[in-house]
Amino acid sequence: MRAVPSQQSSAGRPSKSVASRAEFRPASGLVLLALLIMLILVAVGALAAAEVWSITLKREREVELLFIGNQYHRAIESYWKMSPGRRAYPPSIDVLLTDNRFPNPVHHLRRIYRDPMTESGEFEPIMQANALIGVHSASVDAPIKKAGFGPLYAQFENAESYAQWQFIFLPRGATLIPSPGSTLPVPPPLNNSQGPAPGVPVPQAPTGR
């Protein structure tokens, strides 16, 4: 007679498929946990990278604002110095593009620059007695740059917003008269040849320079 195979071994221990499923459950849980930790790390890294990029972009815009503001400062200075007869400030920004006081128009400003700190891109003119003496940004954001502006714009170190970065041209012997109701701080005297002396209001600046 042929012997019947014993069923004891198969009945006494689990089959290979059951054992494999039991071993797979904790392994799959570890994989999911590892994936979750990886996703968290990736998210944290992305947030940190976004913050660094935002700060870098803001610093680049600050550099651009300083350059553009200085272009307006130099254009106003050029208009004032080239005034025939009694020196005067321009009545508006547009006049800096084309100065028709001469037989051949003079271009003190290459183009109308946009404010890099605002969506509108519009600079706020700083007027004194219907004369344009400077411009400033309309942004109320706090600057990152707090030092290293140089003597001409040393007053920017105390600014609480970009709106307080006032690019004003004052000739020697001129003082700035605060406008009624103005919330912008009056800049301190400028240095060297740009330094105003008290007693002569803008734009009634001395003609001898």
Descriptive account of the structure:
By secondary structure, the protein is mainly α. It has one domain (47-194). Helix content is 36%, strand content 6%. It has a 3-stranded antiparallel sheet with strand order 1-2-3, with helices on one face. The N and C termini lie far apart (131 Å). The model is unreliable at 183-209 (pLDDT under 50).
Gist of the model:
The protein has 209 residues and is mostly helical.
Helix content: 25-40%
> What is the number of strand segments?
3
> What's the Cα radius of gyration?
35 Å
Helix tally equals 3
Structural class estimated from helices and strands:
mainly alpha
Separation, N- and C-terminal Cα atoms: 131 Å
Gross morphology is elongated
Order of helices and strands: HHHEEE
* Overall average residue pLDDT: 78
Query: Order of strands across the biggest sheet?
Result: 1-2-3
Q: Give the percentage of residues in beta strands.
A: 5-15%
Indicate the low-confidence ranges by residue numbers. 183-209
Structural domains: how many: 1
